[in-house]
Amino acid sequence: MQSSGILVFVETSGGAARATSLELFGAAGAVQNALGPVTALVVGHGIAPAVEQVATLGAERVLVVDDPHCAHPVAAVMARVVLTAWDVVQPALTLLPSTTLGRDVAALVAARHGVPHFADIVSLDVTAEQFLATRPVYQSKLLTTVRASRARPAVATIRAGTYRAPEPSGQQARVEDLTVAFSPADQRARMTRMVEKPRGQVDLENAPVVVVGGRGVGGPEAFAQLAQLTELLGGALGCTRAVSDLGWRPHAEQIGQTGKQVRPRLYLGVGVSGAVQHTVGMQGSETIVVINRDPNAPLVKMADFALIADWNEVVPRLIARLRERRGR
Amino acid sequence: MKIVVLLKEVPDPNAVRYDPRLGDLVPGIQRVANEYDLYALEAALRLREQVGGEVIVASVGTARDALNRALAMGADRAVNLEGDGLPGDAWTTARALVAWLQREQPDVIWCGQETSDSGTGNVGPAVAAQLDLPLVSNVVGWEFRDGVFEIEREIEDGHQFQEVAPPVVLCALSALPQPRLPTLRGIMDARRKPVEHLTAADLGLSDEALQPLVQWEGLSQPVAKAAGVVVQDVPPDEAVERLLTFLESRGLLG
Predict the structure, then answer these.
(1) What value of ipTM does the predicted structure carry?
(2) What are the angstrom distances between the C-alpha of B204 and each of A117, B87, B98, B102, B200?
(3) Is B229 within 8 Å of A120 when comparing Cβ atoms?
């Protein structure tokens, strides 16, 4: 069977579609003239709200796998779901979000079929003969373009924030259940428990605002104020490697080469000098604001707005002013 | 227990500089072992210390210094797959590793989550898929008890724990214990440890089997931002007001 069309893997969390999954429909819309209609694959357990949302985003068809096996992200289980949908759809291109799960599943499915996986891409073009994907390399310091022939299908994971999720259209997709048979081999690695992030805490990688404390804040106690500032800005709190190495904050909050990659609308760095190890994890941020005593810090050069001052003198004022504005 | 660590030699990430005239990295950047891979190696050495057995480090493409470092840290032997067509793309690399791994039949394959150069993170999962082994990625902690691993993973929603029995492919993040430094004794011992060199032909792989799936173009630099506003030597109250005005002008105050 000739491959055509686009399969979009919609990852869910707690029944809702992840924002990064919805952005995939923006990517699919941009290349569907070349490749053909879009089929969404919505996977999880108790995912009716996600299905309803996805059905208006431009897909012709929505395949639903609502199964207790799929309640949690386990790579082999989700790969089986995508492989099953692949057999049904025979897609020319399969899109997944560039999440921890999406990256695993994309690589597993691509390897099973002997087709390329364009990992963590920031743009995608399709010509009559080729797929062309641009992706960050050297820890996002540089970009490269990767090409592959259209003689084979392809799989791509798309970096968060690359495409915009389309506005819901009046068109309603055809919704069908897809039954997936899981083998014992798919369940060799199984989830035993999950330690969720505290409620209300915004996920660093998806946060619209990220406040980061560096070694320049002087000590772990400074983070209580930064946490207040973060909450007022509706963001997530991060730190540099120096800070997590000193044990002031947990590694899970570290941004950079050996930590998380963030691309928020607003990055606010406090006492962060901007070592390369850190900047590779945040340089995609839309607006960069820096509060630092040192006017020669590398991050000051990257900033859209740099405030050269002792953070102790400005952060408490900033918190007070934001509180006033919010009327609390 | 037979433990394999997949290790890549990469340009030193702290020395990577771009030459716009070449459209490539400046020449002569020192090559080092990929950082996540060293965390994987440290985990492998600790596993061997717990249960006994052997740690084998394997690399595709030039990797003399990285493999020597791994041997000095305590790996028992090294294998370097190189020659025409290698390393190729992630697919080619995985094919070569799989051909070799099928001979070795290890119980555990550790690798870094991704490399600091191309960073696709494809090789670990591709090896798992081709060998039909379970894959557990983004590993930040592990315990091995009664023949079963309990693995702690760092993912978007928090920390997930998975149980899996060998054989398995595990991909390491840097929240694992820091890689040990080679001791002088380790460096001396490393000179006597075996390093095997294999080509694709030695592994029975044809040129066709090693055909890459993708072609990489040259490198380019992301577009630089215009210089921003710098507020200096301004009283704190006024500085904060200017910052609020700036944030408001960008629509960042909700």
Answers:
(1) 0.92
(2) 25, 16, 12, 12, 6
(3) no
